[in-house]
Write a structure and sequence with these properties.
Blueprint: H1 3-20, H2 25-33, H3 39-46, E1 53-54, E2 73-81, E3 86-94, H4 105-121, E4 125-131, H5 154-162, E5 168-177, H6 182-185, E6 191-193, E7 198-200, H7 204-211, H8 217-221, H9 223-230, E8 235-237, H10 240-251, H11 293-300, E9 306-309, E10 317-324, E11 327-334, H12 345-360, E12 365-371, H13 378-382, H14 385-398, E13 403-412, H15 413-418, E14 428-431, E15 436-438, H16 442-449, H17 451-456, H18 460-475, H19 477-482, E16 488-489, H20 495-505
Parallel strand pairs: 3-4, 4-5, 5-7, 6-8, 11-12, 12-13, 13-14, 13-15, 14-16
Antiparallel strand pairs: 1-2, 2-3, 9-10, 10-11
Helix pairs in contact: 4-5, 12-14, 16-18
């Protein structure tokens, strides 16, 4: 009795062990020589030991007798420890040691199943990308099966529809060409490993054949290209280990889905405590002198720690997650260190996407405004600054999460609107002493209003400075406060104390908009 079952169980056990060997010793050795962890090693780092439930482990390549382990993609769900909670996540890890991690019929069936589980259970979906794209040989889209391409594309539709419901992360730890490039393209967070990760709608060989452009993978779509130039990548990291760590850090600021709020991290500080006098040294005495807004952010957030998105792209604006008294908060801050903090097309795109991300997952927003306005000039107009600027303004107007605006030094023109000025319903609008809110800076006003006098003046620069000094008191924040337009002018040392009270006061905020399908976004 039971002999047949024992034999079958032994077969199953042996098959599982064979599948865990992935592409075999030689393939794994080559993988390690490239400085990469295997898909299963990555999962061991990401998922808490003993909690991973693999789904579709026995899947193998369609129409091929030989075992193709997990068909080149490991799928399942488990728990990760992000430092705040132990949370469930769904994962698809492409295995480059097996068929180059290429997408094929069976593994895409597995990934579809895990996407279904993620959406049904309302848990984050994580892709660990290391794939050469669609499989076009063997049991892939070859021979008569090429016609089956017409039945593909559900991944991208479903990823689009899951957007804003559950967090979606695409960690690029290897190549992501053709269709697999749209997985990060449609995700919320895209960390890229330096030197080993690449993204592109076509790989180097295809690009060379089609447009005769000869490039290496790194030149075409490496982490530098996408984290510094295109903006498609969110964070460049040095290793697979650092990439896994970044995933956990990112998720620690998020709820499991759009129906919840981020959990407050344990915090035992004094809500009435003032920031040290060092904060008074951050803003230069001269309004023309640049400074690094990162320095101010460190004084405001808990433990001087924040998690910055796209730090090397659109550097004139900072978008980052931080905590204040344990509460998750999204920070949008102009950075005068780059282009004076002006908002150009990259800064507008970067901010708009971040605002939509925070609003989707109930993360309050803090705007730190030191903005001279939007970029002007023929180059900006030809690049569509109006359209891109409108995108950011649309995002700020649409956001229903708690919004707090701090005028740090200046907030001019439409830049004031885009950084959540009074008309955009901030739940708190405060400023530092010496701040200015105006249609433009005093020098700009002089250049327009006194154009004729300046043309006739013996020393135009001296006249500009004299007239600007006469105008400056009219745009000083105390003048604005006198009209009751700002809620308060505060001592910078009070910043955390004021924001903690605001976060507590607005934590149950609800806004009801007029029912509609969606806005017509200026993209």
């Amino acid at each position: 009795m039971g002999d047949v079952m024992r034999q079958e169980v032994k077969k199953l056990s042996d098959l599982r062990e064979e599948i865990k060997k992935m592409g075999g010793e030689e393939a794994i050795k080559k993988h390690h020589e490239r400085g990469k962890l295997t898909a299963r090693e990555r999962l061991d780092l990401l998922i808490e030991k003993g909690t991973f439930v693999e789904v579709g482990m026995l899947g193998s390549e369609f129409g091929v007798d030989k075992l193709v382990p997990a068909d080149g993609c490991i799928t399942g769900y488990g728990k990760i420890n992000d430092g705040v909670i132990l949370r469930d996540v769904a994962v698809a890890a492409y295995d480059f040691t097996v068929r180059g991690g290429s997408m094929a019929m069976v593994n895409e069936t597995k990934v579809s199943r895990i996407r279904e589980i993620a959406l049904k259970q309302r848990i984050p979906m994580i892709w660990l990308g290391d794939s050469g794209g669609a499989r076009v040989s063997g049991g892939g889209l070859s021979g008569e099966r090429v016609a089956l391409f017409a039945e593909s594309g559900y991944l991208f539709k479903e990823e689009s529809l899951m957007s804003g419901i559950i967090p979606q992360i695409a960690a690029m730890m290897g190549p992501g060409y053709a269709g697999t490039a749209y997985i990060p393209g449609l995700s919320d967070f895209v960390p890229m490993v330096k030197g080993t990760s690449f993204m592109g709608l076509g790989g180097p060989s295809l690009v060379e054949m089609v447009i005769r452009e000869k490039l290496t993978e790194d030149q075409l779509g490496g982490s530098k290209v996408h984290c510094e130039m295109s903006g498609c990548g969110d964070l460049e990291v040095e290793s697979d280990e650092e990439c896994i760590k970044a995933i956990k850090q990112y998720l620690s600021f998020f709820p499991q889905n759009c129906d919840h709020k981020p959990l407050r991290k344990e915090w035992t500080g004094d809500p009435e405590a003032l920031i040290s006098d060092g904060i008074l040294n951050v803003i230069p005495d001269s309004p023309r002198e640049a400074y690094d807004m990162h320095d101010l952010i460190k004084y405001i957030v808990d433990d001087r720690y924040f998690f910055e998105m796209k730090p090397k792209w659109g550097r004139n604006i900072i978008v980052a997650f931080g905590r204040i008294a344990g509460y998750s908060i999204g920070i949008v801050a102009n950075n005068p260190m780059f282009y004076g903090g002006v908002i150009d097309i990259d800064a507008a795109d970067k901010a708009a996407r971040f605002i939509w991300l925070c609003d989707a997952f109930n993360i309050p927003l803090l705007f730190l405004s030191d903005v001279p306005g939007f970029m002007v000039g023929s180059k900006a107009e030809k690049s569509g600054i109006i359209r891109h600027g409108a995108k950011m303004i649309h995002a700020v107007a649409e956001a229903t999460v708690p919004k707090f605006t701090l005028i740090v030094r200046k907030s001019y023109g439409a830049g004031y609107y885009a950084m959540c000025g009074r008309s955009f319903d901030p739940d708190l609008l405060i400023a530092y002493p010496g701040a200015e809110i105006s249609v433009m800076g005093s020098e700009g006003m002089v250049s327009i209003f006194a154009r004729k006098q300046l043309a006739e003046a013996e020393n135009p620069q001296e006249m500009v400075e004299r007239l600007a000094d006469e105008i400056r008191p009219q745009i000083n924040i105390f003048k604005t406060a006198k009209f009751g337009i700002v809620d308060d002018v505060i001592d910078p040392r009070e910043t955390r104390k004021v924001l903690i009270r605001a976060l507590e006061f607005t934590k149950d905020k609800k806004i009801f908009r007029h029912p509609r399908k969606h806005g017509v976004y200026p993209v």
